[in-house]
Specification:
Layout (H helix, E strand, L loop, with lengths): L1 H31 L3 E5 L2 E5 L2
Antiparallel strand pairs: 1-2
Length: 49
Amino acid sequence: MKNNKKNMTEIEKILQGMDRVNENLITFKKRMNSNLVVLRDGKILHIKP
């Protein structure tokens, strides 16, 4: 049971890190005034930040 709890905290830390990366990427794209490229419904979109 302890091992399962430890894995969940590691997963939570990874997800928090990914959220931070996403925020930093959007901030960087706004600062550089470059398009953000995303995949939605199987289509590649270029979005202005």
